[in-house]
């Protein structure tokens, strides 16, 4: 049985060269930066990694490189969601061969199906995959919301070990309440604003675009809230970070452009986003730089 993940996981960005090919040398530096600053795990090829604008072969190359660069220092979760169960299973088992521990799986989307269809989709993937399956509930992207009751039911499957909640906080609370006594199942938030609230009610982990830029600070938030149960100190740190939280989605839905720009400012290549995503505006870059300075960082040129 695969152990359920917990802690701060970084949904890794993917640096690109000017011709939009993957810059693997910079990717390794990003991974080293995350591990050196204490993250508990890596998410390779997730939404923040721009998997949705990649070919299947590129996704595989990213998963393979991520596992190689992690080199066993922290566990790896791979974004393996595809439209069909068959494709998802194939990518999940490729990730397992590369050394990934878990696979993050979106609900089936575009052609809407019934709750029974979703249930069977996840059960088939769980039964045939050699990685632990993490449900990705992201209705803002898929227009499919998994009910708390369905997530609870799926949590009973031996190889479904966690959920990444990118729905509203009330939904997360319901899921956490229903699954709190399920053995080997954890609940993660995928939203920066919900990280501290999630920990305060017993959530076991968090993803966040911003972890790419501020891994040390968000790992510290976890340590204060979860390991030390020092909510007062955690609230103080959260307040310091709150000014930059919203900038990750200031120009629309969360996407990696702003966090990539911030990383460029502190000397860790984030680079451009792939088309059809658009680059952050200069006004937004200036706001990010202002917040980084407040947090004690020296920032480079905004170019």
Task: Characterize the structure shown.
Its EC number is 4.3.3.7. Catalyzes the condensation of (S)-aspartate-beta-semialdehyde [(S)-ASA] and pyruvate to 4-hydroxy-tetrahydrodipicolinate (HTPA). This protein is of the alpha/beta class and 303 residues long. It has a single domain (7-238), classed as Alpha-Beta Barrel (TIM Barrel). The protein is built from twelve helices and eight strands. Strands 1-2-3-4-5-6-7-8 form an eight-stranded parallel beta barrel, surrounded by seven helices. Helix 3 (85-98) links the parallel strand 3 and strand 4 (102-106). Helix 3 (85-98) packs parallel to helix 4. The longest helix has 15 residues, at 56-70. It is globular, with a radius of gyration of 18 Å. The mean pLDDT is 95.
């Amino acid at each position: 049985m695969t152990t359920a993940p917990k802690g701060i996981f970084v949904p890794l960005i993917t640096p690109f060269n000017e011709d939009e090919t993957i810059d693997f040398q910079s990717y390794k530096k990003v991974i080293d930066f995350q591990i050196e600053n204490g993250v508990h795990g890596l998410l390779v090829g997730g939404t923040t990694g721009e998997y949705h604008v990649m070919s299947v072969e590129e996704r595989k190359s990213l998963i393979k490189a991520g596992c190689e660069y992690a080199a066993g220092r922290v566990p790896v979760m791979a974004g393996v969601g595809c439209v069909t169960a068959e494709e998802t299973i194939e990518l999940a088992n490729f990730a397992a061969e590369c050394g990934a521990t878990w696979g993050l799986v979106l609900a089936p989307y575009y052609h809407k199906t019934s709750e029974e269809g979703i249930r069977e989709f996840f059960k088939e993937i769980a039964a045939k995959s050699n990685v632990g399956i993490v449900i990705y509930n992201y209705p803002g992207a898929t227009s499919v919301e998994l009910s708390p009751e369905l997530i609870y039911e799926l949590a009973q499957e031996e190889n479904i070990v966690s959920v990444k909640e990118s729905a509203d906080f009330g939904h997360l609370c319901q899921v956490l309440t229903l699954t709190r006594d399920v053995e080997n199942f954890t609940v993660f938030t995928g939203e920066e604003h919900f990280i501290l609230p999630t920990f305060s009610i017993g959530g076991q982990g968090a993803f966040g675009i911003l972890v790419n830029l501020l891994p040390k600070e968000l790992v510290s938030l976890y340590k204060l809230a979860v390991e030390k149960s020092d909510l007062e100190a955690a609230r103080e740190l959260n307040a310091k970070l709150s000014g930059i939280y919203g900038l990750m989605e200031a120009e629309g839905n969360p996407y990696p452009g702003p966090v990539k720009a911030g990383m460029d400012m502190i000397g860790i290549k984030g680079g451009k986003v792939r088309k059809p995503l658009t680059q952050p505006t200069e006004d937004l870059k200036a706001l990010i730089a202002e917040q980084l300075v407040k947090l004690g960082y020296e920032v480079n040129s905004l170019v």
